[in-house]
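Input.
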Amino acid sequence: MEVALISVGAKARWQLPKGLVDPGETPEVTAVREVREEAGITTTLVQKIDTIAYWYVGDKGRQRVRFHKQVHFFLLAYQHGQVTDHDWEVNEARWVNLPEAIGMLAFKSERQVLEKAQTLLETMLRE
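Output.
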């Protein structure tokens, strides 16, 4: 099993594709859209994996403020496309074996999401 990962930022950290929910979108629609934009591939929704909520400090204009963020993660099935067709925000997108991908991810919460995805996929394959 493989997962599409993206490398972003000056530090080229590896993470899962994700982005902001646009007005009028559901998190599910956003997930499929962001994977297409950031990883270059077209997918279909299989099921929700998890929602992670956290606070972080960032800039809003000239002020430092606290932001509350929710990230919805979904299991998506590859349909077609090439990871080389990613958008400008991404340094690189690549297919990675699931166990290796868990070790590459920059954020603990995303590693935990991939572990849940792996368990879910193993269960689905046994059925």
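The helical segments are 27-39, 98-104, 108-126.
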